[in-house]
Fold D-methionine transport system ATP-binding protein.
Amino acid sequence: MPLVEMTDVRKTFPAATRGGQDVEAIRGVDLTVEAGEIVGVVGYSGAGKSTLVRLINALETTTSGSVRIGGREITTLKERELREVRLGIGMIFQQFNLFRSRTVWGNIAYPLEVAGVAKDERNRRISDLLHFVGLADKAHSHVEQLSGGQKQRVGIARALATNPSLLLADESTSALDPETTQEVLALLRRVNRELGITIIVITHEMDVVRSLAQRVVVMEAGRIVEEGPVLQVLSDP
Ligand code: ADP
Ligand code: ADP
């Protein structure tokens, strides 16, 4: 069974002003992602990449079509059940979205606190994650004291805290220099290989897709216009 299965998904945002045009952000997308894959989603700004990802973790509701996560149709779920689905999906962002007032430890603790994980279990989990991302010595540092690459490693640890089966990475290396980008990509490869987590990586950086993904989906104006193995779809620069 595929981990993610989208069938004829559409998402229309109503016009912001009366008489304005509705925005058809996603216009009939079929997408299947198998467990264990790393799939890249590429396309110009406005192509619908972020909306696609927000439909997968149910931060947006679909206008029509079906979204199945692990075989479960999520478009008809109630808020309480959606929270459960979202616990199985981690997300990392371009601007990291960390709490500045919290330490590294406190940032990773956050999703575990929200999920109601008991303190002992929480502490064990955070300690394991800090070692996994190579930040054991930074547990008590404040986020502002960290480099961009370290911040994204905290973001990754936080995204993994609830043991998700899927990680969504939205432009997660776009704010980083080339060297730091390589470090973060190496960590994401380990997340996939060692933890068996499926990754969907949205980016406008073709090099990121080339070095990380096995399969790529090209979006244009709300549709998938091309899809296949990276080496086949993306010719050399
Ligand atoms: P990408 O991530 O590829 O840059 P987006 O998914 O952000 O593309 O946007 C696709 C289209 O949907 C754009 O035209 C964008 O302006 C529009 N859009 C995205 N989110 C909203 C929203 N919340 N309200 C109205 N329009 C939106
Ligand atoms: P805050 O988020 O309130 O600023 P911290 O981020 O330092 O505080 O820590 C959040 C929670 O995790 C607190 O309850 C703290 O006691 C606990 N904690 C922090 N570091 C450790 C650690 N190394 N081992 C066990 N518990 C810790």
About this structure: Residues 27 and 223 are 6 Å apart (CA to CA). The mean pLDDT is 95. The first helix runs from residue 49 to 56. The chain has eight helices and ten strands.
